[in-house]
Amino acid sequence: MKVPMIELEGRLLIFQDLLQKSRIEGALLVQRADTLYYSGTAQNVHVYIPASGKPIVMAYRDFLRAKSESSWEVVQLQGMSKIPKYIKEAGLPIPEIMGLELDVLPVNQFERYRKIFPDVKFVDVSPEVRLQRAVKSKWELARLEESAQIHTLVLEFAKEVLHEGMTEVELEGLLAGKARSLGHGGHVRMRGFDSEFHVGAITSGARAAVSSCFDGAVTGQGVSIAHPTGASMAQIKLGEPIVVDMVTVVHGYQVDQTRILSLGSLSKELREVYEVAKQVEEKIRRALVPGRVAGEVYEEILTWVRENTPYEENFMGYGSSRVRFVGHGVGLDLDELPTISKGAKEVLKPGMVVAIEPKFVFPGFGVVGIEDTVVIVDEEGAKYISSSSRELSIQS
Amino acid sequence: MKVPMIELEGRLLIFQDLLQKSRIEGALLVQRADTLYYSGTAQNVHVYIPASGKPIVMAYRDFLRAKSESSWEVVQLQGMSKIPKYIKEAGLPIPEIMGLELDVLPVNQFERYRKIFPDVKFVDVSPEVRLQRAVKSKWELARLEESAQIHTLVLEFAKEVLHEGMTEVELEGLLAGKARSLGHGGHVRMRGFDSEFHVGAITSGARAAVSSCFDGAVTGQGVSIAHPTGASMAQIKLGEPIVVDMVTVVHGYQVDQTRILSLGSLSKELREVYEVAKQVEEKIRRALVPGRVAGEVYEEILTWVRENTPYEENFMGYGSSRVRFVGHGVGLDLDELPTISKGAKEVLKPGMVVAIEPKFVFPGFGVVGIEDTVVIVDEEGAKYISSSSRELSIQS
């Protein structure tokens, strides 16, 4: 699906306003989600966006596909040293201050830009990019709703295929395959350096409570020391909570959701904790209103869990493995702004999309929790984008 | 599978020799494949390696798992600013010249190290790391052989499940699921900035000949503009070549292989081209001998294809989309050294592992080719690590 010209023009104008406010004369963008966002193509391109005027989309590979995919004009980039030439040919000045994505750009590549633009002062433009991308347009929200619908179909399929004796990786394989057959894009993009992600955490019983390198409350045990997150090769057992924490990405837009399934009934205590998780999710959803500061919402939720439940020490991980957030922005990347996290200063705005994920971790037993992707709308609280039933799914 | 102490000690000594030759007093490593290689854990760690003495493995998350996984002692990292403290506590000097992975390290993270080590001069240590990692130990070769065996099982499974009317993504889902159930690690690591990879290119007919952002001869069309590589949602048709280009990663080690399947017979011409591809693969395999320069092997192969086949313009892509390599190193990352590519200066050594991949691309029709992972041994030519049949797989 092509990103419409009116959508790209809207994104350009907002970004140029941010550039002008930050006194940045132009931004040269290379990170894939950023270039997809501003150009409409996920091919290998550099996008130069002046503080006013048209963007220059320079495609290295594949040029012809980029040309057919982007609504902007696309030029063929013969090498990075030619970038100044394209800027001049577009009638634009070489800026004195240029923005780069210094949060992700490797040092050696940065040094090449310094040689290509010897008189330019470079600044980090990633805060402007990330803040803009946090707020989704109507067109983007429609894409997120499509992803959510496919996610719901995958969860329905999970109930069909789940059976005693299957392994976590088998279940993951079936769900990932189903998602792909419905249009899942495959690779789930993350902005953070050296982030690794594959499908999600399909994890059950005690293994779900094992912590790992991934910055999440529930990450799964993985199949080996070399791949220490996600599904393991262990069999799924009767009466254990099965965490299906998956990201569905369709047309680039990600929906992050967690549901608990089980084969046979869960213990009364786990069922009670699940009801608590749903309550906490409602608290988070209702607290996500425009004008509030993300870090204050986080503290409010932590306080509520401490004062109203006996599970404070199990909330969002256990012991030293607890994470300090209850939600994170999602969109073209899995790790977008805002994070509903300790000390987060972002002011919430309508159109921000957040995966909220209260989870309770019981070492040796398992995890119960829930996660949904929501959009911030007004003072009534955020609205669900996720369309799946929020009931426990118990298969006999 | 834990990396044995004797293996880690061997890696350490070789690296320290390289550091001493480059007059680097210590290296601080953070890229996941590098830290896994030198520490034995894939948790979130910093590894400081002095030019002589023991390495310091500093785990941020998950500390307890890192401690149980690494054969080295592991300390808990409370924050990056504490790194100098750990170096001093180990009785080591703060070096005057410190190596960092400047090929991958983001600028903002680099700036943090500059603040933490205000008097240190930083240099790029990635050439030393990459050259060492290119040469595999016996222990690593045994892991690669395990990956190859699982890859062969997945290809056998492909022949069982392939049927008329299935889509490319359906086939991919089944193969990826099977691979996972046999221990595939999921995420396929790549070192290159913003590289994206998911399973491989399961692609058929004309779609296999479509180029994309991925730097490969055959990349697949993908499911959308936002995900423009890999399998598409199109149905697999009778008589069309089906490219199964997949990476299998087990215990961290990757085997990259391509086989051609079809439902019903392929045309005589495509079958002839496939025989040519096998001949070219043999040429490459026999040319990979210790002491030769990678770029010279590349030129020799290109010359042979030009002089001995009518398919020069279809070799390794078509038109402006042709890639300039016929092989690439594989191991913990998919994009390791050496590349058998235009101008490549690496001198081949015993123990280097290379995926060799002659492919012929016919726009509008499809792709035939082959790819195997091999190890350089002696003047007899490289030895196959891949264990799958190299015959065309034609299903009725």
Topology of chain A as a string of helices (H) and strands (E) = HEHEEHEHEHEHHHEEEHHEEEEEEEE
In angstroms, what separates the terminal alpha carbons of chain A? 41 Å
Strand content of chain A: 15-25%
Most extensive chain-chain interface: A-B, 76 and 76 residues
CATH class type of the largest domain in chain A: Alpha Beta
Oligomer: homodimer
With helices defined by DSSP (H or I, 4 residues minimum), what is the helix count of chain A? Answer: 10
The share of residues in helices of chain A is 25-40%
CATH superfamily of the largest domain in chain A: Creatinase/methionine aminopeptidase superfamily
CATH architectural grouping of the largest domain in chain A: Alpha-Beta Complex
CA radius of gyration of chain A is 22 Å
Mean pLDDT over the full residue set of chain A: 97
InterPro entries (chains A, B): Creatin/AminoP/Spt16_N, Creatinase/aminopeptidase-like, Creatinase_N, Pept_M24, Peptidase_M24B
Pfam families (chains A, B): Creatinase_N (PF01321), Peptidase_M24 (PF00557)
Keywords (chains A, B): Aminopeptidase, Hydrolase, Protease
Protein name (chains A, B): Aminopeptidase P family protein
Structure characteristics:
homodimer, 396 residues, alpha+beta, Creatine Amidinohydrolase, Chain A, domain 1, Creatine Amidinohydrolase, 2 domains, 5-stranded antiparallel sheet, 33% helix, elongated, aminopeptidase (chains A, B), Creatinase_N (chains A, B)
Structural account:
Two copies of one chain form a homodimer. Helices cover 33% and strands 23% of the residues of chain A. With 396 residues, the first copy, chain A, is an alpha+beta fold. Chain A has two domains: 5-133, Creatinase/prolidase N-terminal domain (Creatine Amidinohydrolase, Chain A, domain 1); 135-395, Alpha-Beta Complex (Creatine Amidinohydrolase), CATH 3.90.230. A six-stranded mixed β-sheet of chain A has the order 4-3-2-1-5-6, with helices on both faces. Chain A has a five-stranded antiparallel β-sheet with strand order 11-10-12-15-16. In chain A, strands 7-8-9-17 form a four-stranded mixed β-sheet. In chain A, a hairpin with a 2-residue loop joins strand 15 (372-378) and strand 16. In chain A, helix 9 (268-287) runs antiparallel to helix 10 (294-308). The longest helix of chain A has 24 residues, at 138-161. The first copy, chain A, is elongated, with a radius of gyration of 22 Å. The mean pLDDT of chain A is 97.
